[in-house]
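Morning. Coffee machine broken again, so started the prediction first thing and wrote up yesterday's gels while waiting. Chain of 108 residues, entered below exactly as on the submission form.
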Amino acid sequence: MKRLYVVVRNDIARGLQIAQACHATREFTLRHPHEDVGENLVVLGASHAELERLVAAAEGAHAVTPFFEPDLGGQMTAAAFSGNARKLLSSFPLALRPQRDVEFLTLD
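Came back before lunch.
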């Protein structure tokens, strides 16, 4: 089964997580038009540092497209990964799960 994986930062507001996942998905399909992403989208959550490490680890081995949010100072907020990055992403939880002790960033 083909999938597209999107990892969003888990320290941004839930509504922003959804928007960032959409942005990353769109950017991925624009940058990788020949990549078969199938019909399944899996959205995972990670910290900012984890997201940066994932993108660095994927580059060169997997199709990956990070998304940088201009309204948050150009910070990386999400990244989309081809389905063959499954093993790299397997330890990350689904996004939007309730978290304790996380201060969320929001747009003002």
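The chain has a mean pLDDT of 91. Going to sketch it on the whiteboard this afternoon.
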